[in-house]
Amino acid sequence: MKKRATIDDIAKELGVNKSTVSRAINNPNLVSAEMREKVAKICKKMNYIPNSIAKSLASSSTNSIVLLIPSFSNDVFNDVIDGVKTVCDQQNYNLLISDFSYTPLEEQRIIEKYLQQNVDGFILTETLHTQQTIDLLNSANIPAVELMNIDANPHFLANIGINQYAAAEQLMRFLIQEKQRKNIVLCSAWLDSRALLRRNAWEDMLTAHQLSTDRHYKMTTKTSISTGAEALIEILFRWPETDAIFCVNDDIAAGAILECSRRGIKVGKELDIVGFNDLDFAKVLNPSLTTIATPRFEIGQLGAQTLLQFLAGQPLTQRIIELPFKFMRRQSA
């Protein structure tokens, strides 16, 4: 196997010092245009590939950031990933992505692992962390931003997302005040910080209108269209008087709508169903899904821009950035 070309090989070929070649590659503004052109020509001829590991050891930077998401199977985070990746590609940063399975302890373990790899920063999609995670990142002096939720007291550099409580409150106000629904079931799975805020809004709105908060169906499996269909069956068995279901995400809502169709239940008339996030399929379901549209790509994009801006030494003007959500009224309610 042919030996990989090194800076020493380039310098020898050009008859110059190794430091001159290093400057031409890593700090091209420090050498003449003529030297840059010569080095570039020989690098191409010898198929030279810079050693990023050696470079990171010298600079104490890997040009890498970590994005932690709760699950690779949750479609909500595909747009977030795209937003973060777009910015990283533009600024020549490596993006490392890990799944912490909705578990704060697993998030902590992954962060500990990446801290040993000298990454430059973290983008977290959760605001509920172990105290050790908070202490680890703050003591290591590694910047991190939190996405998806708005928190009045960010744990780290910045907090970017929507007001989850206000969005859920708007859905509930619509069901109670406009649709006059009284027996509203909340259908949720893991109570991460987003689901907790949506549950709180559901509970508070029912309490404010003197309606029962007993109808909370807690799923024990991952949310999906199929588990949403199964949830609908169980909900109607437990609470046959149900006249509306607030699903904490669109997957559950889609499954419930499909099961209603199979059973001949008229969604939007006999039973209202609402979701959350406005995934691609929401508008093409029959009936189309009433839900909350969240700016997931923009949240990811802004999160990466904020982190990389800080890493570049630029001052931050905001630590809390709230983006707008949109109520999408369609046929399912």
UniProtKB/TrEMBL annotation:
Domain HTH lacI-type: from-to ranges: 5-59
The keyword Transcription regulation appears for this protein: yes
Annotated InterPro entries: Cro/C1-type_HTH, HTH_LacI, Lambda_DNA-bd_dom_sf, Peripla_BP/Lac1_sug-bd_dom, Peripla_BP_I
HTH cro/C1-type domain residues: 6-49
Classification via CDD domains: HTH_LacI, PBP1_GntR
Alphabetized UniProt keyword annotations: DNA-binding, Transcription, Transcription regulation
GO molecular function term, any single one: transcription cis-regulatory region binding
Record carries keyword Membrane: no
PANTHER family noted in UniProt: HTH-TYPE TRANSCRIPTIONAL REGULATOR GNTR (PTHR30146:SF2), LACI-RELATED TRANSCRIPTIONAL REPRESSOR (PTHR30146)
Protein name: Transcriptional regulator
Protein's organism: Gallibacterium salpingitidis
Taxonomic path: Bacteria, Pseudomonadati, Pseudomonadota, Gammaproteobacteria, Pasteurellales
